[in-house]
Specification:
globular; disordered N terminus; 318 residues; ABC transporter involved in vitamin B12 uptake, BtuC; two-stranded antiparallel ribbon
């Protein structure tokens, strides 16, 4: 009897029915991954602040909505809170000389208490869609997908515009070659602080979206965000490289980062559909990230091996 129930629950219909919810959540995580992309690829910094700033965004938005603020304005307030969190990490790194990864850990650690204080020292706060006109909600999946997609497109457009400006180009140069950028008169410390602030602002914005989508903010909602963000970035880069190759521009890279978030969450849907232990999701995520991280390296290795073999063969012929 138990076996029959298990087999019937593995129908393709059940899997497909879970995809819309996975796409909606994947879009939100994809937006969060855009923030991770800024530090990870633009500044070459692995910023661990995001585990705390994601929750900060959710906590700020939830409390603002409970206080009567418009849910869309609450998203903006969450973005500003994320800017503050990222600025703290940036100042710890640039002014006090603390390594970036440790600065992120310190800020993340402090944000746990700050997030609790924001929520009135409660571990979670509910914001039901029946009471508040939320900007996005799991109650209305199709609308949530449309809203998430529109927000992602607008955000990609804004980031594409900014990184084409003088300031944005200076930030990209800072991540590419700090010494050369410094020699060109760029204040790399300011660029790092602003980059970390912008990154965490986007992450907190995504946290506010997630809080509204799921109907509550929780103190642990940001745990593991950095890994999910990296998964989305890496998956998006590998897929983008496979589809567009050298024809991929910066806007395409940003778009594929969001697509990576969606693909990641669809994989989560498949894992849950297979009735694998949900407590093992972090292990599966780590494996997914490791596989996609290894793909570019293994591909380059295979190309190098092929070139060496071709070169050796030509020598033998001669």
């Amino acid at each position: 009897m138990i076996q029959m129930v298990t087999v019937s629950s593995l129908s393709i219909g059940n899997l497909i029915s879970s995809f819309p919810g996975g796409i909606a959540q994947g879009l939100i995580w994809g937006i969060m991954a855009l923030g991770v992309y800024i530090t990870f690829r633009m500044l070459d910094i692995a910023d661990l602040t995001v585990d705390g700033s994601f929750t900060t965004g959710g906590a700020v938005a939830a409390m603002a909505i409970l206080g009567g603020m418009n849910p869309w304005l609450a998203l903006l307030l969450a973005f500003l809170a994320g800017l503050c969190a990222g600025t703290v990490t940036g100042l710890l790194h640039t002014l006090l000389g603390i390594p970036a990864i440790l600065a992120g850990i310190l800020t993340q650690f402090a944000l746990y208490s700050i997030n609790l204080a924001i929520m009135g020292f409660a571990s979670n706060k509910a914001i039901g869609v029946d009471t508040y006109a939320l900007s996005i909600s799991s109650r209305y999946i199709v609308l949530a997908i449309i809203t998430g997609a529109v927000i992602a497109i607008v955000l990609i457009g804004l980031l594409y515009w900014y990184f084409g400006t003088e300031s944005g180009s200076a930030m990209r140069a800072t991540g590419n070659n700090p010494e050369m950028s410094k020699a060109q008169g760029i204040n790399i410390n300011i660029m790092k602080v602003f980059g970390l602030a912008l990154s965490n602002g986007v992450v907190a914005f995504a946290g506010a979206l997630m809080a509204q989508y799921q109907g509550f903010a929780d103190i642990n909602m940001g745990r593991g965000s950095i890994v999910i963000g990296l998964a989305a970035v890496i998956i998006g880069e590998v897929i983008g490289e496979a589809i567009l190759g050298k024809h991929q521009n910066f806007a395409g890279r940003l778009s594929f980062v969001v697509a990576g978030g969606v693909l990641y969450y669809l994989v989560v849907c498949v894992v849950l559909w297979l009735h694998l232990n949900s407590n093992m999701l972090k292990l599966f995520t780590a494996i997914i990230v490791a596989v996609f991280l290894a793909v570019p390296y293994l591909r380059n290795q295979s190309k190098a091996s092929f070139k060496r073999a071709k070169k050796n063969a030509s020598k033998e012929v001669q």
